[in-house]
C-alpha cells in the first residue's frame, strides 16, 4: 500500500523504537537457551528484557557520522603532531614513562574489552543490551587502535614502547592489568558488565582517566590529550551503559541484589588495586603535577562515589566491602608502589629516578601525615647510595599477591610500619594475598585464582627464558641498558638533553616548493 | 619563485614497533592498518580459563578446525581500521540519506504499482530480521575468532548488518507512512509465513554452529551469497517495470555494501583455503552444506515473488556463487 | 536539597553556543573554567534545548550532536528530539 498524503512525523524516541525494537524474535527451530547458552548460569534473573532503556538512542547511521567526524579531527592532530615533532613540547622526557606504562598496560586492556563486549554483544538475550554492547565493542577497538597510532610517533624516539604486546603477555608488572582483565572476561556475562561497565567504567573511571589525560595536558603531550578528549565522549556512553546495566539488574529481580553486591565488593577492590599503578604515576611520573592521588581519590571516589551509592541504596545496594581500607591507604599506596618500581627498575621497560628536593617538598605538602615520616628517609638513603655509584637495584624476586599480582608491598591499613600479609589454604597448598580485600576475593573463588600465571613463580619454574635476570629480560624483549635502569644515564636522557640544547640551532631545509604561476 | 621551509631534523631511532618489524624482517615504516591490526590480540600466558567454557583459553585457535600457521594472513583488502571503516560508512550513509530525501520529496514510492508494492513488502521487510541474524553471527566471529585482523573486520561487518537492518526498517516506514505497520507485518511474515520459514530455519541453525569459521562460511559466503543478489539484484531488476526505482534508490547501501564486504570475505576464504588441503576440504564441505541450505531457503521466496521466473533467477544467483567459490579455491 | 548534576564540555568553538544555551536555559547553573574544559553544574537538573542552540548557530542543531563536544557527565540522561536532560531522581 503506497503512502498517501503526508506521513506522520516521528519523534526521536518513537523512531528509534521502530528501527530497533523487535528486530529479534523467539527462535523456534532452535531452542532459545541453545542460541543464548550463557546468560542464566550466574543466577541472575531477568523478567523482561524489554525493560532495557537505551539512554543514547544511536542508530548506526548517526554512529558512523559522528565517529567519522571525531576520527577525522583526531588523525589531523596526530599527523600534525608527528610532522612537527610535537614531542619537543613535552615538559620533560621523564613524562614519557607514564605513556610507556599506558601503552604496555592499558592499551591491551582496551583491546581485550573490545573482544569481550563482542562476546556480550552476542550472548545477552536482550536485543537492546546487545546493541549497546556491540557499540562499546567497536568503541574499545577505536581506543586500542588510536592509542597504538598516537603512541607510534613516540615509539620512534623513546624507549619501552617498541614491543608492548609481547611484554603485556609476559612482564611481571604487566600481569597486574592483564590478570585484572582476564578475570573479568573469564567470568559470566553479567559479572563482566558489573565489573567493567559499572565498577570500572563508572565508579572508578575518573581515577584512571584524569591522571593520564590531565597528566598529558599538563606535560605538553598534545597527542595524548587529543586522544583523551576524543575518547571521552565514547566514555560518557560507556559510563551511562554501566549505570544503566546495574540499575536494570537490580530492578529486574530482588534475587539479583546480593549477587550484584558480591560482584561490586570484588571488583571495587580489584579495580582499586590495579589503580595503584596509576597512583604511582600521578604522584611520581608527571614532571608537572596535576593533583595528588589522595586529592583525586577524595574527589572522584569519596565524594562522587558516595553520592552514587546513596542513589543506589534504594535498590538495596551498599558501598563496597573494604572501601574503608582503601580510604585508610590513600596516604600510602602511591609511595609504596613507586618504591617497588624503584627497586625493580632494572627489570622494567620504563625508568624511575631520584626524587628531587622540590618534588619531595610537594609530596610533603600533599601527604603531611605520611611522607616525611615513612618515605622521605627511604628516598634520601637511595639518593646517597646512587651518589656513591651504588644505585640500589633489588636482586631478589618479590612475592606476588595471588589475586592482584602486585608485589606484597602494601602495609596494614591501621599500621604503615607492618607489611600486610594474608594467607589462605586450598587443596593442601598455601596462597598469599596482600590485603583483606584480595584474600576475600581469593577465598570466594580459589579454583580460579590458583590458575594464575604468576610471573615470579614462572621465572623460578624456568618458563621465562633462563636462570639469570638477563635471560629473563631478553625473553621479555627488553633492550638492556636502554628500556630499563635509572633515567639518569639512559639513552633517552642523552637524546632529550641534546634536543633541548639544539632546539634552535639545528635546522634543515626542506626541498623547495614551487609557488603557483 | 620557490618557497623554502626550515624545520628541525630529528632522526628517529626506530621506524615502527618491534613486532611489526619482525614481520617485515626489517625496521621500516608501517601503515596505519598494519600498526592497528598486527598482533594486538594477546596470545599466551592467560591467567584463567573462561568459567563458561573451560575447555578453551581466552583466545584459542582450537575453537575452529581450520589451521593456520599464521593468523595474520587475512589482510583486509579495504585495510579497515576503526577510523577508515567509519569514514567509509559515513560516506555511504550520506548517499543513501540523499536518496531517502529525494524519494520522499518526489513521492517516488507512490508511483509503484500497488500489486508490486505488496511483493516488495513481502520480500524486503522481513530481510531486516535476516540482517539481524547476520549481525549476531558476525559478532560471534569477533568473539570466538582468532587474530586482530580477522576479528576486527568481523566486528565491522556485524555493525554493517545492524545498520542495514535499520535501513530496511526505514524503507518500511517510508512505505507505511511512519505508522510502523509494515514492520509489524514483516515480523509476522518472518515468523509465520510459509515461504520465509526455510530461511528463518537456516538462520536459526546458523546461530548454534560450534565452529566460528563454519559460521563465517555459512553466513558471509553461502547465505549472503544467495540472499543478497536475489533480493537486491534479481528482485530489484524485476521491480523496474513496476516503477520501483524509488526502492532501488533507498536500498542503495545494501548493493554498495555487498560488493565492498565481499572483497573481505573473498580474501579470508582464499587465504584459509590456500593454506592447506585440510582447510580446503573443511571449507568446501561447509560451503556445500550451507549453499544447500541457502538454496532451500531462497527457492520459496523466489517462487512467491517471481512465480515461474523464480527458479531461473535463483539459478543465476547460484551459478555466480559457485563460480566465485571456485575462484576462491573451494571444491564442489 | 537536590544533589548536583553536571556536564563537562570541551572548550572549543563548536561547544561555545552549547555552553551559552545551557547558561541561558538554566539560571541555577554554575560554569567553571578548567584547562581545555568547561564544567557546568546545577542542582538536580540541567536542560540542553535544541532550539536554544539552533538559534545561536544559525542552523538546525540535532540534539545528538552533543556527543561531539561532551567529555563526561554526572546524572541520569533523557534525550529526545527537542532536548537533552540530565537529572537525579
Task: Give an account of the 3D structure.
The complex is a heterotrimer of chains A (517), B (332) and C (89). Chain A is built from 22 helices and 6 strands. Chain A has 517 residues and is mainly α. The longest helix of chain A has 31 residues. Chain A starts with 11 loop residues before the first helix and ends with a strand. Chain B is globular, with a radius of gyration of 23 Å. In chain B, helix 8 runs antiparallel to helix 12. By secondary structure, chain C is of the alpha+beta class. In chain C, 20% of the residues lie in helices and 43% in strands. Chain C contains 2 helices and 7 strands, in the order E-H-E-E-E-H-E-E-E. A 4-stranded antiparallel sheet of chain C has the order 2-3-1-5, with helices on one face. The mean pLDDT of chain C is 90. At the A-B interface, helix 1, helix 3, helix 5, helix 6 and helix 7 of A face strand 1, strand 2, helix 2, helix 3 and helix 4 of B. Strand 6 of chain A pairs antiparallel with strand 1 of chain B.
| Number of helical regions of chain C | 2
User: Which structural class best describes the helix and strand composition of chain B?
Assistant: mainly alpha
Which word captures the global form of chain B?
A: globular
Give me the count of strands of chain B. Answer: 2
Order of helices and strands of chain C: EHEEEHEEE
CATH fold-level name of chain B: Ribonucleotide Reductase, subunit A
Ends distance of chain B:
66 Å
In short:
Helix content of chain A is 58%, strand content 4%. With 517 residues, chain A is mainly alpha-helical.
Amino acid at each position: 500500500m503506497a503512502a498517501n498524503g503526508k506521513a506522520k512525523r516521528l519523534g526521536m524516541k518513537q523512531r528509534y523504537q521502530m528501527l530497533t525494537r523487535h528486530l529479534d524474535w523467539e527462535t523456534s527451530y532452535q531452542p532459545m537457551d541453545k542460541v543464548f547458552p550463557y546468560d542464566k548460569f550466574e543466577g541472575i534473573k531477568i523478567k523482561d528484557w524489554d525493560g532495557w532503556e537505551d539512554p543514547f538512542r544511536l542508530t548506526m547511521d548517526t554512529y558512523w557520522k559522528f565517529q567519522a567526524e571525531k576520527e577525522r579531527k583526531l588523525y589531523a592532530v596526530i599527523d600534525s603532531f608527528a610532522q612537527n615533532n610535537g614531542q619537543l613540547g613535552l615538559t620533560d622526557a621523564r613524562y614519557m614513562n607514564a605513556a610507556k606504562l599506558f601503552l604496555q598496560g592499558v592499551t591491551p586492556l582496551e583491546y581485550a574489552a573490545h573482544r569481550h563486549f563482542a562476546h556480550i554483544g552476542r550472548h545477552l538475550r536482550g536485543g537492546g543490551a546487545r546493541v549497546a554492547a556491540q557499540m562499546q565493542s567497536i568503541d574499545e577497538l577505536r581506543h586500542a587502535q588510536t592509542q597504538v597510532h598516537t603512541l607510534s610517533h613516540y615509539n620512534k624516539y623513546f624507549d619501552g614502547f617498541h614491543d608492548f604486546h609481547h611484554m603485556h603477555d609476559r612482564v611481571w608488572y604487566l600481569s597486574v592489568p592483564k590478570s585484572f582483565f582476564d578475570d573479568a572476561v573469564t567470568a559470566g556475562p553479567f559479572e563482566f558488565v558489573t565489573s567493567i561497565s559499572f565498577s570500572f567504567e563508572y565508579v572508578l573511571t575518573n581515577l584512571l582517566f584524569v591522571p593520564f589525560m590531565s597528566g598529558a595536558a599538563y606535560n605538553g603531550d598534545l597527542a595524548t590529550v587529543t586522544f583523551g578528549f576524543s575518547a571521552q565522549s565514547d566514555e560518557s556512553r560507556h559510563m551511562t551503559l554501566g549505570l544503566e546495566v546495574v540499575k536494570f539488574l537490580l530492578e529486574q529481580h530482588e534475587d539479583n541484589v546480593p549477587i550484584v553486591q558480591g560482584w561490586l565488593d570484588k571488583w571495587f577492590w580489584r579495580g582499586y588495586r590495579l589503580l595503584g599503578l596509576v597512583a604511582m604515576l600521578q604522584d611520581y611520573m608527571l614532571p608537572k603535577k596535576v593533583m595528588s592521588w589522595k586529592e583525586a581519590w577524595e574527589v572522584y571516589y569519596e565524594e562522587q562515589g558516595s553520592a552514587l551509592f546513596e542513589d543506589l541504596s534504594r535498590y538495596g545496594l551498599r558501598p563496597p566491602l573494604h572501601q574503608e581500607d582503601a580510604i585508610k591507604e590513600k596516604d600510602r599506596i602511591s609511595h609504596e608502589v613507586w618504591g617497588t618500581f624503584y627497586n625493580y627498575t632494572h627489570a622494567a621497560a620504563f625508568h624511575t629516578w631520584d626524587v628531587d628536593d622540590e618534588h619531595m617538598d610537594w609530596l610533603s605538602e600533599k601527604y603531611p601525615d605520611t611522607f616525611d615520616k615513612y618515605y622521605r628517609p627511604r628516598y634520601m638513603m637511595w639518593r646517597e647510595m646512587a651518589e656513591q655509584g651504588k644505585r640500589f637495584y633489588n636482586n631478589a624476586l618479590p612475592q606476588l599477591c595471588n589475586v592482584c599480582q602486585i608485589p606484597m608491598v602494601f602495609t596494614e591499613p591501621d599500621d604503615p610500619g607492618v607489611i600486610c600479609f594474608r594467607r589462605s589454604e586450598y587443596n593442601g597448598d598455601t596462597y598469599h594475598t596482600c590485603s583483606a580485600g584480595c584474600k576475600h576475593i581469593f577465598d570466594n573463588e580459589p579454583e580460579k585464582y590458583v590458575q594464575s600465571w604468576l610471573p615470579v613463580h614462572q621465572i623460578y619454574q624456568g618458563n621465562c627464558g633462563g636462570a639469570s635476570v638477563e635471560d629473563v629480560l631478553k625473553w621479555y624483549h627488553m633492550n638492556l641498558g636502554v628500556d630499563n635502569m635509572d633515567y639518569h644515564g639512559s639513552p633517552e636522557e642523552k637524546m632529550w638533553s641534546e634536543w633541548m640544547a639544539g632546539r634552535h640551532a639545528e635546522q634543515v631545509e626542506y626541498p623547495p616548493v614551487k609557488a603557483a604561476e | 619563485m620557490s618557497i623554502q621551509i626550515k624545520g628541525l631534523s630529528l632522526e628517529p631511532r626506530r621506524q615502527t614497533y618491534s613486532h611489526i618489524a619482525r614481520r617485515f624482517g626489517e625496521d621500516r615504516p608501517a601503515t596505519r592498518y598494519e600498526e592497528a591490526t598486527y598482533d594486538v590480540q594477546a596470545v599466551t600466558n592467560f591467567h584463567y580459563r573462561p568459567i563458561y567454557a573451560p575447555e578453551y583459553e581466552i583466545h584459542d585457535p582450537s575453537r575452529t578446525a581450520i589451521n593456520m600457521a599464521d593468523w595474520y594472513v587475512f589482510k583486509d583488502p579495504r585495510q579497515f581500521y576503526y577510523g577508515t571503516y567509519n569514514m567509509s560508512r559515513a560516506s555511504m550513509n550520506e548517499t543513501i540519506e540523499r536518496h531517502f530525501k529525494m524519494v520522499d520529496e518526489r513521492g517516488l514510492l507512490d508511483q509503484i504499482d500497488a500489486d508490486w508494492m505488496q511483493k516488495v513488502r513481502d520480500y524486503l521487510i522481513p530481510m531486516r530480521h535476516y540482517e539481524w541474524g547476520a549481525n549476531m553471527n558476525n559478532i560471534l566471529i569477533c568473539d570466538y575468532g582468532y587474530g586482530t585482523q580477522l576479528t576486527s573486520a568481523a566486528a565491522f561487518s556485524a555493525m554493517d548488518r545492524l545498520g542495514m537492518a535499520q535501513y530496511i526498517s526505514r524503507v518500511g516506514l517510508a512505505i507505511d507512512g511512519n505508522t510502523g505497520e509494515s514492520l509489524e507485518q514483516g515480523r509476522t511474515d518472518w515468523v509465520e509465513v510459509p515461504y520465509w520459514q526455510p530461511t528463518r530455519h537456516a538462520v536459526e541453525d546458523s546461530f548454534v554452529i560450534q565452529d566460528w569459521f563454519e559460521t563465517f562460511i555459512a553466513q558471509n559466503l553461502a547465505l549472503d551469497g544467495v540472499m543478497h543478489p536475489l533480493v537486491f539484484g534479481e528482485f530489484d531488476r524485476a521491480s523496474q517495470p513496476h516503477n520501483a526505482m524509488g526502492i532501488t534508490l533507498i536500498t542503495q547501501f545494501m548493493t554498495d555494501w555487498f560488493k565492498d564486504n565481499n572483497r573481505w570475505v573473498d580474501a579470508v576464504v582464499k587465504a584459509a583455503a590456500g593454506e592447506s588441503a585440510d582447510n580446503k576440504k573443511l571449507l568446501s564441505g561447509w560451503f556445500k552444506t550451507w549453499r544447500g541450505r541457502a538454496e532451500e531457503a531462497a527457492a520459496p521466496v523466489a517462487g512467491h515473488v517471481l512465480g515461474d521466473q523464480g527458479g531461473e533467477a535463483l539459478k543465476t544467483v547460484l551459478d555466480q556463487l559457485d563460480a566465485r567459490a571456485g575462484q576462491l579455491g573451494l571444491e564442489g | 536539597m537536590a544533589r548536583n548534576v553536571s556536564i563537562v564540555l570541551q572548550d572549543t568553538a563548536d561547544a561555545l553556543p552549547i555552553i551559552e544555551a545551557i547558561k541561558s536555559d538554566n539560571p541555577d547553573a554554575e560554569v567553571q573554567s578548567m584547562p581545555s574544559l568547561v564544567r557546568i553544574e546545577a542542582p538536580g537538573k540541567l536542560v540542553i534545548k535544541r532550539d536554544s542552540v539552533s538559534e545561536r548557530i544559525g542552523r538546525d542543531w540535532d540534539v545528538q550532536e552533543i556527543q561531539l563536544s561532551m567529555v563526561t557527565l554526572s546524572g541520569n540522561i533523557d534525550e529526545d528530539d527537542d532536548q537533552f536532560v540530565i537529572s537525579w531522581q
